[in-house]
Amino acid sequence: MLAHTAAIMRATLDQPDRQQNVTTTKGLGQAVTSLNREYRAVLVNEEVQGIGRAVAQIVRGDGWHEAKASAVLVAALVGWLGVDAVHPVGFYANGTGPVEAVAKVGHFYLTGHGIESEDDLTVNCCERHRARFSQSRLEDLDLSQPNARFTMGSPLAQRAADRLAAILSEEIDPEIARVVLGA
Q1: What's the pLDDT tens digit per position in 147-167?
Q2: Which of 22, 86, 122, 149 is deepest in the core (most CB within 10 A)?
């Protein structure tokens, strides 16, 4: 009887303290969730919010989800992670031109709201822009092409993208971010 009890005790003690396969909300793994927290902390940084407001030409908020600032954010992400890791994508709402720019990095999308999976991104963009799911899509976006909705190409936009890329590099190691995102 003592040998049986000892065997049960050993088996119980050998078990890890917590479950190994933990899934977090919205299907993001632990590493991506942690990176998302760091990324969002940068976006709410006072200096970064000021940059976002200036580019978006708004008074309140951070501005990074606004059409004008979202393209600058994607350009900053290219500066931070590298042109080979970031793929600019536009959200086309209700059959119109792109209303928001996002960055696809590996298996995830970086937006002014954080890191999202593709399924979540489409739904969230539809909600943000009051767009019909059936009439909206994600499509490749060339940031060098002129677009009235975006601010790319201006000196303010370039300075903002460069400064945001520098802040991101100071706060989050780009190599770690690339690995976590699957780039």
Answers
A1: 666 666 678 888 999 999 999
A2: 86
Q: In what order do the strands lie in the sheet with 114-116?
A: 114-116, 108-111, 98-105, 86-92, 137-140
Tell me: the pLDDT tens digits for 113-146?
899 988 788 787 777 767 776 767 678 888 777 6
What pLDDT was estimated at residue 90? 85
Query: Is the pTM higher than 0.85?
Result: no
173 falls within a domain:
yes
Question: Does some domain include residue 99?
Answer: yes
Q: Which domain holds residue 90?
A: 27-181
Residue 13 in any domain: the answer is no
The residues, ordered by sequence, that sit 6+ positions from 6 with a Cβ below 8 Å of its Cβ are none
Number of structural domains (the chain) is: 1
Query: How many whole angstroms separate alpha carbon 162 and alpha carbon 96?
Result: 29
Angle, alpha carbons 27-103-129 (nearest 5°): 80
